[in-house]
Amino acid sequence: MKTGKIVYVLLCNFVVSWFLCSSVWANSAIDMDIKVDMLLAKMTLREKIGQMTQLTLKAISSQKESAQTRHQIDSVKLKQAIVDHHVGSILNSWDASLTLEQWHQVISSIQDLATKQTRLGIPVVYGIDAVHGHHFLKNATVFPHNLALAATWDPEHVRISNQITAIETRASGIPWNFSPVLDVARQPLWSRFFETFGEDRYLVTKMGVAAIQGQQGEGRVIAGDRVAACGKHFLGYSVPLSGKDRTPAWIPERQMREYFLPPFKAAIEAGVMTMMINSGDVNGIPVHANKHLLTGLLRDELGFDGVAVSDWEDIIKLHTVHRVASDERHAVKLAILAGIDMSMTPYTLSFQDHLQDLVQQGEITESRIDESVRRILKFKYRLGLFDNPYSFDKSAAKPGSSESFKASKNAAEDAITLLKNVDNLLPLTTRSRILITGPGAASLPALHGSWSYTWQGTDEALYPKTSQTLLQVLNKKVGEDKVQYVAGASYSSVIDLDAVRRAAENADVILVAVAEKPSVEQLGIIEDLRLPNAQIELVKAARSAGKPVVLILLENRPMIIREIEPGSQSIVMAYHPGMFGAQAIVKVLYGDVNPSGKLPFTYPRYSGSTETYDHKVSESQDLAYAWTAFRPQWPFGFGLSYTRFEYSDLRLDSNEINKDNRLLVSVTVKNIGKRRGKEVVQLYLRDLYASITPVVKKLAGFEKIELDPLQSQEVTFAIDPEALSFIGMDNKAIVEPGQFQVLVGPLVADFWVK
């Protein structure tokens, strides 16, 4: 080595050592990139690979949390992971919620070792699935799941719920949340349907950006009461051809860009700090090994500069499941070269040995490792972990405040969607005698869904003692003397239908709370969308006495109820409304809340006919030619109210638009009923003719308003040329000249693109 180069290296090492060992490191305003590069220069290859490794909490624990046992860290395993193997990230709970004090102990145990007993003192970044509130924290605020939040058609509910989730997650010492789900749910069989914001790219985009803003706040550096968000699952996860989780999707690039990419593109523009990668394969290529998607699209085209983290064990699964890798070493090579930064291993450390060998053998360059480690270190700086690795303030307000609970309650009330109300059966009077039956009537999990205190959400022993079922809230509302409960059926088995028939004779109104057992991921795989036969028979038994029936739907996804819809006078879609779901449902039933939710998906009539609202003309119903492809039970955007709204005076400020201007669309909405109510004003666009077969309509704007009886309001939308675009034959966005239509409520207006 030449003398000049030796001097340069020695000088660099001296400067780096000085910064690492002095107060200048913590207090100076040196650019973050310089700090990261200085630290990276000090790291061994093994230390770098450690930063790319993520273990689950179970891997460093000796005992799990349950109703009978307390969670315990295994100090030997923890030291091996953090000190000996330099592990840079830990995730999740061991399938159960912990108290605030327990989380503080977990985080402190990890960071004490990472910052005080390792050579460079690099803090660990802890991540968790806080997907509808910090539900792995006891007594935290749990919100409606995303599908229910989407039914509010109000991004402010999403922003506020995610802000509160961030505050409570950070209060427990966790700075990274694996949320929001940005997948567009166009396959209702898929078991994670309820985690999405629905079937429409525009609605998902608006809600997804609101979620990111709520979690991360403003700026490139995350404040001490916010967390880093994680967009997931990049890309194409939500449309497995079979409908079964983590099975192949077949998505042409044009459709990928048209329907599934927009929410992720908007998330990157909104500053999302991390991305979790799709566990499945798209067009025969597992996404964890797809360099075109993870580097060409995500990095080079979209400009994402954050951390790309694998999903659960998905690098190993390139070998064991997808079989594109001959062994685990080969799997690691494929994933890292494709663009993965951090491996959610989550139990084994073999990833480290394989990656080190790949670098030493020259199959992966150390510069490629440096790319990922630089992103991870910058991520930790932006989270403020080098200044406060413990990431919590014991003097901060405790989670589960009255204000946070109110936000959850408000969101649940706005989400409830009234789908049917023959002869204005609802709202009910408290004088009526009620029979309530069904698996959702006395169940907390049915209201909360999965990811609630445990992974699947089914262990009621771990729910807060203050949680209330539908039956409990109903008893409190009208009095136990007017409410009779008969189980009737479980999720999938008949219990006693004769008892339901006998009780129905003495009731004025029968409430049947049908429900899908909470489940997620592969445990939520089903064979078809039909509501289980036991529950169908339950509804038939309930209506045998000829009394009016109110059907309450608590569902992971839309279940087929075609057989029982005609005999149900009223139908209420409740989704998974969360910790105040029972109260919200009862308030809607009795008119204390005027329902305003709208479906964020198309509710199918048949399992084999699941077209989305933005289908093609050839899929439209046309009985004259026996075309009945699109005949859903209820359409996207549908929802009734206890009042009525009238639309009038649809106006466009011009009948022409070009690439340099935008179109202003105004409409007047009037409450012509007798109750104050909320209405979601939805604007759709229709391209009459295009080089790619156009959809019948697509959502381009929405606004939720509230009006008193006889009150009117003018609502104005601005349509940018981008809203008129579609992905053309060359897989690029294009706006073609021609005739278009604006649709708002029952009103239609024409305009032309020049």
Question: What would you say about this model in short?
Answer:
This protein is of the alpha/beta class and 754 residues long. It folds into 3 domains: 31-137 and 156-183 and 198-232 and 247-273 and 288-382, TIM Barrel, CATH 3.20.20; 416-623, Rossmann fold (3-Layer(aba) Sandwich), CATH 3.40.50; 643-753, Immunoglobulins (Immunoglobulin-like, Sandwich), CATH 2.60.40.10. Helices cover 31% and strands 18% of the residues.
CATH class of the largest domain: Alpha Beta
Query: What percentage of the residues does DSSP assign to strands (E)?
Result: 15-25%
Low-confidence stretches: 1-12, 14-29
Placed side by side, the strands forming the largest sheet appear as 13-18-17-16-14-15
* Number of β-strand runs: 30
What is the CA-based Rg, rounded?
27 Å
Structure classification: alpha/beta
DSSP helix fraction: 25-40%
Task: Write the CATH homologous superfamily of the largest domain.
Answer: Glycoside hydrolase, family 3, N-terminal domain
The biggest beta sheet reads: 6 strands, mixed
Task: Output the number of helix runs.
Answer: 22
Task: Give the tally of structural domains.
Answer: 3
User: Average pLDDT across residues?
Assistant: 94
User: From the 3D coordinates, which CATH architecture of the largest domain would you assign?
Assistant: Alpha-Beta Barrel
CATH topology of the largest domain, by name, is TIM Barrel
N- to C-terminal separation? 66 Å
